[in-house]
Design brief:
Length: 265
C-alpha cells in the first residue's frame, strides 16, 4: 500500500514538473500562430507574425548576427577545448588539476564581472568595443564547457584500443586519427553545441563588448522589451525551440550510436 502511494506521488510530481516545463513552450508556439497582437483569446490561426519576422522585423538580422557569432565561437572552442583536454591527459596530474582549475574560472566568476573586466582590458589594449573583443569575450565564457565535455568523454571511454595501438607500434598521429579522435567525436560535438547555446545567450558579454550600434539577438530582445512587445518574438522563439529540440534529439542519437560503435569494437 505504501509503495502504491509512493509511486503515485512520484508520478504526480513528475507530471507536474513536465507540465511546468512544457506548457509555457506550448503556449508560446500556439500564440505565435494567433491573430491577436497580445495573445488574447479567442484563438484565430495566422502566419502573419512569421511573415513579419522575415520581412519587417529587426529580430531576423539580429538573429543572423547571433548565429554567426555563436557558430564561430563554437567552432573555435571545439578546436581549443579538444587540444586542452587532450593535453591534460598526458601531463602530470598536479599540472592537469591546476590547468583545469584555471580553465573553470569563467564558470565561477559572474559574467557581468568578466564583461566589465574585459572591457577595461580591451580599452587599455586599444581593442575596445569591437567584433574581435566580443568574439574573444564569448570564447572565454564558453571554453570551459567544451573542455569539460571532452574530458568527460575521455574519462568514460575505454582506453584499451589506444594502448593496444601503441603496443603494436602505431605512431601517435595514427593513434589519434584512428582511435582517439573517433572516440572523442560525441564529446566534441556536445561541447560545441553547449558552447553555441551558451554564446547565443551570453547577454552580458555582448552588451558590454559589442561595437556601438551593433545588436545581437539578446540585445535586440532587451531593447524591444523596454520599448514595446511585438508578437514576432513568439514566432522567433518557436523557431529557436524547434531547432533546439531537433538538435538535442540528433545529439542523443549520435551519442548512442557512438557508444554502440565503441562497444562493438
Amino acid at each position: 500500500m505504501r509503495n502504491r502511494k509512493f509511486n503515485l506521488a512520484i508520478k504526480v510530481w513528475l507530471t507536474a514538473t513536465y507540465m511546468l516545463i512544457f506548457i509555457p513552450i506550448f503556449v508560446i508556439i500556439m500564440m505565435s500562430f494567433n491573430e491577436t497582437r497580445f495573445g488574447m483569446l479567442p484563438f484565430i490561426f495566422t502566419t502573419r507574425w512569421y511573415v513579419m519576422l522575415f520581412e519587417e522585423s529587426n529580430l531576423f538580422p539580429a538573429t543572423l548576427l547571433s548565429l554567426e557569432l555563436s557558430g564561430t565561437v563554437a567552432l573555435t572552442s571545439m578546436f581549443i577545448g579538444t587540444l586542452t583536454a587532450l593535453g591534460a591527459q598526458y601531463v602530470p596530474k598536479k599540472v592537469s588539476d591546476a590547468l583545469m582549475g584555471v580553465a573553470q574560472l569563467p564558470i565561477i566568476i559572474p559574467w557581468l564581472v568578466q564583461a566589465i573586466a574585459l572591457l577595461l582590458l580591451f580599452n587599455l589594449t586599444g581593442l575596445g568595443r569591437s567584433y574581435m573583443g566580443m568574439y574573444l569575450g564569448n570564447l572565454i565564457v564558453v571554453l570551459p564547457y567544451c573542455i569539460m565535455m571532452v574530458l568527460a568523454r575521455f574519462n568514460e571511454a575505454d582506453r584499451t584500443p589506444e594502448d593496444a595501438a601503441r603496443t603494436l607500434g602505431a605512431s601517435y598521429p595514427r593513434v589519434f586519427k584512428d582511435v582517439i579522435f573517433p572516440m572523442l567525436v560525441p564529446g566534441i560535438i556536445s561541447g560545441g553545441l553547449m558552447s553555441f547555446v551558451v554564446c547565443f545567450n551570453a547577454f552580458a558579454m555582448q552588451f558590454f563588448l559589442a561595437p556601438f550600434g551593433v545588436r545581437t539577438l539578446p540585445m535586440e530582445i532587451f531593447t524591444l522589451i523596454r520599448v514595446g512587445y511585438e508578437p514576432d518574438m513568439n514566432a522567433l522563439a518557436s523557431i529557436i525551440m524547434t531547432v533546439t529540440i531537433v538538435l538535442v534529439v540528433m545529439l542523443n542519437k549520435l551519442g548512442y550510436s557512438a557508444n554502440r560503435l565503441m562497444k562493438s569494437k
